[in-house]
Amino acid sequence: MIDLFYWKTPNGHKITLFLEEAGVDYRVHPVDITKNEQFAPDFLAIAPNNRIPAIVDTDPADGGAPIALFESGAILLYLAEKTGQFVPADARRKAEVSQWLFWQMGGLGPMAGQNHHFSGAAPEKIPYAINRYVKETARLYGVLDKRLADRPFVAGDDYSIADMAIYPWIVLYERQQQDLADFPNIRRWFDTIAARPATARAYAVAETV
After folding, report:
1. φ, ψ (nearest 5 deg) of residue 97
2. pLDDT tens for residues 147-157?
3. What residue ranges define each of the domains in the chain, with the CATH number in brackets?
4. Any residues with CB less than 8 A from the CB of 109 and at least 6 apart, and which?
């Protein structure tokens, strides 16, 4: 059983996408970041960086004590390796998945997050900051679009944790002032993932919290 400490953000959706696809039993523990619940001592004991998501695996593969994890990319890798799903065993193919997973963690996520902040949440509209992050988001979309020009998924023929990490950030393309008509390969990939039954189930979780 996986205990998932979750809120309905792109990073939270990454983990429900995996759990629904893999058919892993899990329990959702909402952490309402609008009420600063991520700073509660019990949650900080699991996720010291006070960010969702986090998990506790109550039945780790080694049969030992429960394993707690924070950081969405680390969680995806852990779950993929535990279940043997959505990450290849072959070293070369696994490297393809890993580099695009980390591309999302280090690039798309932080830049799109700053885009969201300065375009929508900041108390003061700073044109320089808005322009900077909208343009950088567009650049990253261009990188992804080029990558998807000759393959169905970011790491090749198979759906992987790299796609699961990237997709929830593309869901918010309008908020990021992007037009998927400008990125036809992303549009095709996006529609393919949106049509997966597990994607619908994962996003339905957000309606329960």
Report:
1. -65, -45
2. 999 999 999 99
3. 2-86+198-208 (3.40.30.10), 91-196 (1.20.1050.10)
4. 10, 11, 165, 169
Q: What is the pTM of this model?
A: 0.96
The encoded tokens of residue 56 equal: 């506790």
Burial (CB count within 10 angstroms: exposed 0-12, middle 13-18, buried 19+), residue 124: exposed
Measure the CA–CA gap between 146 and 130, rounded to whole angstroms.
24
Q: Write down the residue that tokens 């004991």 correspond to.
A: 45
Q: Is 76 within 8 Å of 165 (Cβ atoms)?
A: yes
Strands 67-70 and 54-57, sheet pairing: antiparallel
Distances (CA, A) of 13 to 8, 22, 123: 6, 14, 27
Q: Tell me the two tokens of residue 65.
A: 């004590």
